[in-house]
Amino acid sequence: MPSLLGMSLLLERLICTLSNALQMVNIRLFKTSDTDDVIRVARKAWFHTYKDIFSKEKIEELLSIFYDPIHLVEGNTLKHSFWVAETDGKIIGYVTIGLENGEMKLFRIYLDPDYIGMGIGSKLLQTAETFMRQHGITKYYLEVHPKNTLGLSFYKRKGFVQSSRQPTDCSSECELVLEKTLD
């Protein structure tokens, strides 16, 4: 068993590595040329997130609907604000926000599962929230599957609170609606 000093040094190295990884991540606006990379991240993230919630066939069906290249480019660049996270020229995550029925909504935030726990999701969310604050938005919401424990724990740590439940076409279960008020 490692000594307390050994554990302390190991933890210090891990924190340094995570800090360096986060500093090497660039958040920038989505470009049409990012489409294939975003779809790659989406596939990896969806199978990681939803493997115990939906069948493989259902995940494939939903991916084909939500990540059709034409829909992805037209819908996100014309109607939403869309940022990607990249490191060493590789896209590893993304976030999209936009208005729906007159309210600001976080539509998607996903990370390549290999990069979870490094603060990159927080950096993506912070970018979207900064944009919202700059545009006078003080409150926004998102919808999340009740069995998406990875997403739910992230959102709760970031200050979201459940406001309601609503039916969805994706599942027989109602999605949770979470809200956050910006400072």
List the helices and strands and how they pair.
Blueprint: H1 4-23, E1 26-29, H2 35-50, H3 56-66, H4 69-79, E2 80-87, E3 90-100, E4 103-111, H5 120-134, E5 139-144, H6 149-157, E6 161-166, E7 175-181
Antiparallel strand pairs: 1-2, 2-3, 3-4, 5-7, 6-7
Helix pairs in contact: 2-3
Total helical segments: 6
Give me the secondary-structure category.
Answer: alpha+beta
CATH C-level label: Alpha Beta
CATH topology: Aminopeptidase
Describe this structure in words.
β2 and β3 form a beta hairpin. It is globular and about 55 Å long. The protein has helices at residues 4-23, 35-50, 56-66, 69-79, 120-134, 149-157, and strands at 26-29, 80-87, 90-100, 103-111, 139-144, 161-166, 175-181. It has one domain (27-181): Aminopeptidase, CATH 3.40.630. With 183 residues, the chain is an alpha+beta fold. The protein contains six helices and seven strands. The mean pLDDT is 87. The strands form two sheets. Strands 1-2-3-4 form a four-stranded antiparallel β-sheet, sandwiched between helices. A three-stranded antiparallel β-sheet has the order 5-7-6, with helices on one face.
